[in-house]
Design a protein that fits this description.
This protein is mostly helical and 144 residues long. Helix content is 68%, strand content 8%. It contains 5 helices and 3 strands; from the N terminus they run H-H-E-E-H-H-H-E. Strands 2-1-3 form a 3-stranded mixed beta sheet. Helix 2 packs across helix 3, helix 2 packs parallel to helix 4 and helix 2 packs parallel to helix 5. It is flat, with a radius of gyration of 21 Å. The relative contact order is 0.13.
């Protein structure tokens, strides 16, 4: 029928095409960030896992949960912002240590020294938040 083609066209152009474009640009951004890691450390094996970025991001998110503060920045949730800040701090720490040693040869070994520290902090971070306030609904809301 004539009415269904306009509905189908609206779904295609209004829902499907934007999702395809978002997926394309997200994949392109991930590819560029991976290339940036490998170029910055001059090593084709550099990944967010070997550089400690993933550990830093998860620690930032865990600290956000622990704090009990709820905020958003330009519609981006606070946990995402905290994870981003944790990952940036981790990569800056690794990059700073490699620059202090005047070489990139140890860049892939230093995150492995931080990873056990991050792993030991995880059990200490989220559980006190559940026992102290978050489980009772105690929250502070901040909006930017």
């Amino acid at each position: 029928s004539p009415g269904s083609s306009s509905v189908e066209s609206g779904i295609f152009w209004g829902i499907r095409v934007p999702r395809i474009l978002i997926a394309f640009f997200a994949g392109a951004a991930l590819a560029v960030s991976g290339m940036a890691f490998q170029a910055m450390f001059r090593n084709p094996l550099a990944t967010p896992f070997t550089l400690g970025v993933s550990s830093g991001a998860s620690l930032g998110a865990a600290l956000y949960v622990r704090s009990g503060v709820v905020f958003s920045v330009l519609g981006i949730s606070g946990i995402s912002c905290s994870a981003f800040l944790g990952s940036m701090l981790a990569i800056l720490l690794v990059y700073g240590l490699t620059q202090a040693r005047k070489g990139f040869s140890t860049a892939l070994l230093q995150p492995h020294a931080f990873h056990p520290v991050h792993q030991r902090l995880y059990p200490l971070v989220p559980y006190p938040a559940l026992a102290h306030g978050r489980a009772r609904g105690g929250r502070v809301r901040i909006r930017f």
